[in-house]
Give the backbone structure.
Amino acid sequence: MIETALTVGFAAVLASMLLSTWRLVRGPRTPDRVLALDTLYVNHVALVVLIGLWLENDVFFESAL
């Protein structure tokens, strides 16, 4: 069950990162780009947590903090 949840989580975070990157590149205004960059940061932290769960390693959780 955890493998399925991790797969769905990875897909969701990666899709969110792609959409945020698109908004960062194509944002019509500066506030849109700033918000996209902030969202990318949060998504990277979520990705680090997911990798920690996948590898069953506590070091990734400490780095996410």
